[in-house]
Queue: 3 jobs
Job 1
Amino acid sequence: MNLIQRIDALLPQTQCGKCGHPGCKPYAEGIAKGEAINKCPPGGQETIAGLAHLLRVPVLDLDTSRGEAPAQLAYIREAECIGCTKCIQACPVDAIVGAAKLMHTVIIDECTGCDLCVAPCPVDCIEMRPLVSVVPIVGGLAANDLERHERRLKRDRARLRYEQRNARLQREEEHKLAERLARAKRSTPMDAIPVDNHQVVQDAAIKKAKITVAMSRAQLHKSLKAFGHPPTFEQQSRLIVLQQQFEAAEQALATLEVGSPPATSTPKDPELKRAKIQLAMRRAELKRAQEQSADTQQLATLSAALTAAEQNLHEAEAASEQPAPVLQRVEKRPIDSQLRQLKTALAYARADFSKLQRQPGTHADELNAAQRKLDEAQRQVEAHMPRSE
């Protein structure tokens, strides 16, 4: 095992990107080249101590400018899920299951708590809940020793799932490229001009650039939502870097699209696109400030920034050659807050009962009490369902 692999084995394998790298393995490569060992909030001091021991360097304090990352798990409020699959695409370890237009749910045992699924959700039905771990003393080992052993096993499993997901995505991309080549060959007569493989490769490069733009945009929005208002100097520096990465990705995509033949659809106006992104950012800032009960002056400043962003969008739409979108108002069915609370209580009761079943040495009285609590929660949900329909 080389140095990069040994460093990577100590990282938490959340693939969250809070260290400034797209994953744990790139950060391990950076550490091997001399980068600081205190940039991993999910790993905390335990990871810093392990890296310092491995590399024989001084133990540093955690770089808190990158935010905090306590042990947590993603939870989907299933009554609000619309089945858009965006969270499934964002999860780096395939810990979310579901299908298009169907409810999604999180595999609790596989979730790494990276919170990358929160920002892409268009209805904000995903929340991060603290991870509560109760490990009994078994065979004379202390609870913290068993917890460290469990964390190591989970790191190894998360790394394996991450690598398997990347391999699967690579296979799917290669399969799609092969299908495009096959379709192009079938659509061309045998005695006609050969298929332009260069154009197929160009299309694949454009698609990859679009994915990069989408990922950098999601990272920027996630950071805007996670950082405080106003952000610290370090957070502002991080936002500037993310904004530059996003603009560089957009520029790379525009460069590729210049050399490609004109598409049949209407070309996108970069200024209009930028105005839409700025409007979404201002809305997210105002919403977060309202949730944190910010003072009146700050709310007024953010509201004015939102109004200016809306005006800029209107001006960009007027200057754009694209047709104005046809807007339709959709009346959404109101969510029954009491039913949602009952379903949440039911989910907690089910999780507690399942946890007690998995724990060795659980007393029968505790298991029976959890079963009664689960039955009562199920009964309340069923009793409320007819009134909610």
Note: Strands lie at 72-76, 96-97, 105-106, 126-130.
Job 2
Amino acid sequence: MTDELDRAYAGLDALAQLTDALTDLRPAHADERPLYVGWGMLATVHRQAAAVVLLHRHGFGHETAPNRRSMLEHAAQIWWLAEDGTDAVESMNHALKHKQQKLREAADDSGISYDATIADAVQAAVLPPTSAQTYNHIGHLLKRIGPPLHMIYMSESMLTHASLTSAERFFSGPGTDTVELLTTPRYPSDAPGPDTRAPYIALVLTWFAMTAFNRLLSGQPWTDALQHIAQEAGIEDTAT
């Protein structure tokens, strides 16, 4: 496990250096929006990875499930931008309009006052439908990328949200004479949890996000470096 953690730290550092060195964002296509939206999502992935490492080093690997889930969501969206470009951006605009409307309804229901300028502008926007809108649903998108990613997402969601799965990490022994209540999480000994591997999971997801984002850049300048990092970390066959 120590070797895996060392490779995770080294890989994440190498990926961060690539990002820091990118000073000229030149889009691969005429529509620049996928690149800039992708950059915002990639920056989020990197910050979530840093949070995972920080929490793990302080003994809170279990608590990084929400971070890992967020990383997977953002990495998948970058992949979508690289695949569908303009259609992906327009689909995200549809999702934004829907969510803004739901937010407005919730604020109105609770009697909260707010400046309606942005909400009015979003609601008034006329957006042409796109065939890619179905991929605003994260489950549909992950299945398109690869069914195993959807399974991983579902697993992380069960640890992230209040559920029997998240609760049972903190007690043991149901059905026996002794039930032990725990203050730190415990995973079955025959099925090690993702808490101990959190930094490596973060590395794989960051690498996947950067591989997708590289396709949005003119000339795909990170290709060789990403391949080298994957080989060093042993993840070259991880992402699709």
Note: The first strand starts at residue 171 and ends at 172.
Job 3
Amino acid sequence: MAEDDRVDLGLALLERLEHESLPLPAVVDRIETITTDPAVTRTILDEAELRGIIDREDGIVRVKSRQYVRFEEQVVTRDGEFSCRRCGAGLSTGHFIKLEAGELGPFGSSCIRKVTGRE
């Protein structure tokens, strides 16, 4: 995946977090489902702040958007052999988030809730 694609996907994910604020490590945990490259992670965070998606202060990220992932419409499941993008566990059913910038996943049933902020 090209850096621009990862940045777009990261921005789309940050726009849909369900928490009003999160500690920076929790936000980075979600971004790491897209990339583990520290330079791309920094670009996603910087670009999100420039575009007014988030505010950062004292290690806390405040999400300005109030759009959420709609599970009924934006999360799809597929059966197969997958590895969770967040924890690495083997999966027989993968959950995928459909965002305007692309699809993110697969995730297990508990990791999909963590990534979207439902848990």
Note: DSSP finds five helices and six strands in the chain.
